[in-house]
Amino acid sequence: MTDFTSLVTETPAEHPFAPFVRILGKGKRGARNMTRTEAREAMGMVLDEKVEDTQLGAFLMLLRHKEESPDELAGFTEAVRERLHAPELTVDIDWPTYAGKKRHLPWYLLAAKCLAQNGVRVLMHGGGAHTAGRLYSEQLLGLLEIPLCRNWQAVGEALEQHNIAFFPLGDWAPQLQRMIDLRNTLGLRSPIHSLARILNPLGARCGLQSIFHPGYQGVHRDASSLLGDHAIVIKGDGGEVEINPDTISHLYGTTDGQPWDEEWPALSDRRHVKPATLDPHHLVAIWKGDIEDSYPQLALIATMALALRGLGLTRAEAFAQAEQYWANRNRSI
């Protein structure tokens, strides 16, 4: 006897998340951006795990194809912040690090460490080694003695004792980490890589952001403006918050909801030669002063100046302060 599946004689109810997929995917003429409210609601459902895996994959890839709008990024951020339950901790700089480096070593780690030695409180966060062939912050924390924290209490203690803490995304926003980890399943990076840079989970005085692809910097700045955040967005080396001293750097800033722009000239007359290999111990040697190397010193001093610019100093003041910090650093490691 053959068993047949039951006939569908009644139209099944639509899944509550389906309208958001339809907004993004309803053809060339029917698709549109989500409003800020719609984006907040959609991300809220994702974070509350009220979405099917198939819907999530479709949602992320439709966003990736369309490219996120400022309203969508602002709405997503609001949904995340509403669910964080983070403690009230004083932070000066929010420093997202999600890209990894492949052309140069992550000199931004020395910049952050040097700022922390001088009383600037820095929260760093990242999403792990998601792409082969890159060097990630998480792989170097022990070498550089940057505290790795696995809960908010440890973050507070590290900030009090060392003025710097690294908090993996998976420990404070596991749903977002899961979406980042879909990169090798879907074959493309999802918009969560961009979203994580905006989150500023502890409401730091200034959020630094780096977006490598042209055109996205303004979108991120506009999203931060909508949120009322003080932020500076750059096209950093390799997608990390690190000034490339060989090129002009454009700062896309926002303060009190008002955008501003600033252009920093290149710091070198000619381009430096890219190193043949990336040896992490070169970071330690530069920190200790065992070797001199033009590119890293220019890069890390300019990156410190970027952070200090975000804390209210003028460009000239920021560079002078950064150079003083670097010259007087505690070289033990």
From TrEMBL:
Annotated GO molecular function terms are: 1,4-alpha-oligoglucan phosphorylase activity; thymidine phosphorylase activity
- Keywords assigned by UniProt, alphabetized: Glycosyltransferase, Transferase
Residue ranges of domain Glycosyl transferase family 3 N-terminal in the record? 28-83
Gene3D superfamilies noted in UniProt: Nucleoside phosphorylase/phosphoribosyltransferase catalytic domain (3.40.1030.10), Transferase, Pyrimidine Nucleoside Phosphorylase, Chain C (1.20.970.10)
Q: Name one GO cellular component term.
A: cytosol
- Please tell me whether the keyword Hydrolase is annotated for this protein: no
Coiled-coil annotated residue ranges, if any: none
- Check the record and name the Pfam families matching this protein: Glycos_trans_3N (PF02885)
Gene Ontology terms: biological process: pyrimidine nucleobase metabolic process
The name under which this protein is listed is: Anthranilate phosphoribosyltransferase
Question: What organism is the protein native to?
Answer: Pseudomonas graminis
Classification of source organism? Bacteria, Pseudomonadati, Pseudomonadota, Gammaproteobacteria, Pseudomonadales
